[in-house]
Fold:
Amino acid sequence: MLIGVWKLLFGYVTMKIEGLSIDKLINRALAEGIELRDLRRIGYTRLEAGMFARERRRFLALSREYPVRVSLQSAAGLPYLWARALGRLGLLAGLAALAGTLAALSQFILVVDVAGTDNTRLVVELREALAGQGIYAGAFAAGLDTSQAERAVLLAMDDLSFVSIRVRGMRATVEAIEKVPVPDMVDRGVPCHVVAAKDAVVVSVDVLAGEAKARPGDVVAAGQILVSGQVNLSNGETLYKHALASVTGSVWYRGTASQTLLLRTLRYTGREWTRVCLVFPGGRWLLSRTGEEERYGGEETATERTAPMGEGFLFPVWIETTRVRETVTDVRLLDFEEALSSAVELASRNALSLVPGDARIVDRTAGYRIDGDGMLTAEVYVETEEEIGTEEPFA
Amino acid sequence: MENRLKRSAASAFELPMDVLMRLPLIHLTGGALVEVENHRGILEYGDRLIRIDSAAGPIWVLGDHMMIETIQRERIIIRGSIYGVRFGAEGE
Structure:
């Protein structure tokens, strides 16, 4: 394998040697340090021998000292390809024109990729803001100041906290991070209560300012005052403070999921067709196709894209393979344990999706019921401990 | 005389003979490949017989469809269906 690469890189020749002193010539070549390869006897007075292109001249010079005739059988490798190409002016001109075209095209942006946010409205606004800074499909990219464009886009869009613009070849990649809204806080000088943000059982109350109205073990409803900012003194006076406290509580999140006991699975029939296309901005070429393109009653389509020249190369091209397979649906009665396990897992996932990121999960319980129509419903309760207090100004 | 001395020295000091006397070192891989080191060139080359000169006398490599894959100053690699390697003037 490696020797094959070596031959390609440095050039490799096969010589035909004819005469009666072939063995002497070979031994002399060895003594001179010429490495011979693939020696093949093709007759009593004839032999083929391969060598790297750089050894060829020395070997020919040596061969003149012996009564042998040496001729070139074949020459392969990049040096010979290059030498052949040099003789073809049209090819060289074409290559130069191609290189020039590529160089010219690489000065333009053909693709603008936006990553980092799925917010469609934001992406549309971001593209408009980018266009205002000269970053759009078809724009001339040379001399573009991406740092200045980043600053301008950030200033223009309040919803963004970070923007990065990279232009590589014909592709501009923009990464944007959306601002996370800061929760409304009551000004420290304004009197307020700390109220329950959600229904919970109080676990702990640490008061920094104000008067505790809830104790550990109390069941509280959303909006109920946990720590009051209105403090009644023994002398009858009333103080209005900005209540400050950390109140944690147990909160339960419920997730449900239903699962039919009849399982439907897809099965491939074996009928399929495949289409391979070369995709580029603004079009596609069909490269190959197997099978006849048709619509099946039930089908599964898988599309895969690969960038043969790498993402962000001068030419943004992809090879797109579409494979469509005919499917039929098989129905079978599901094993009860399997159905229950699947429903509980889904219900658990649904419950967990409601749990805030800063909550600590302390327990998880699951139950199920089977309805009259044979539907299995699983219920999962996730118990968490989390901060439940939120500041609320006096009404 | 010199050879006898070298042989005695190699034996006494347990030195490899191929290094001290430049005796041929032959590797045989199955019946498909022979590698001969410390050779002195080829004496005869055919697709059924290849004779190689060495400090230990001629080496006869017998086989079918043989070809020399590589030949360098120190090493020869022969490929083919090899069924024998012999030493001696007549390969006996």
